[in-house]
Amino acid sequence: MENARQELHAKFETALGHLEVEADQKEVEIESMQATIDKLGEQLYNLEDENDRLKEEFDKVKEEEGAERDRLEALTEALKEVCCFHFLSIFILILHSESRPISRTVAANDGRV
Question: What is the mean pLDDT of residues 63-88?
Fold first, then answer.
């Protein structure tokens, strides 16, 4: 009976030793996984910061492009007005010159027709 008890105790000690080794291995795995989680958390934090920076930059560029578009539209309208005024001025001059008698036109051009 003493032998059976010692044998049982030895089996128990062996099983306990295996469980302790497995527990140590699991603890190492958990520490490794925690380090990976911490690293990924830091990467996520950095990516969120980069995303926020890119959004701000995009909004700034979008605002600048809107201002540039407004400026170009105003310039286009101003050029249309200038061209229209220039065209009308030339048109009026042509009409006015066609309505003058030939003798006045010749005199005004020093005898050139």
Answer: 89
CA distance 80 to 11: 100
Listed as own residue / partner, the contacts of 59-62 with beta carbons closer than 8 Å and 24 or more positions apart are none
From CA 19, how far away is CA 13, in angstroms rounded?
10
Of 24-28, 47-51, 67-71, 83-87, least confident by mean pLDDT is 83-87
- Cα–Cα distance for residue pair 24/106, rounded to 1 Å: 115
Sole residue written with tokens 């220039």: 86
Please state whether 111 falls in left (phi above 0), alpha (psi between -120 and 50) or beta.
Answer: left
Structure tokens at 14: 């062996």
11-64 pLDDT, tens per residue?
Answer: 999 999 999 999 999 999 999 999 999 999 999 999 999 999 999 999 999 999
CB 72 within 8 A of CB 80: no
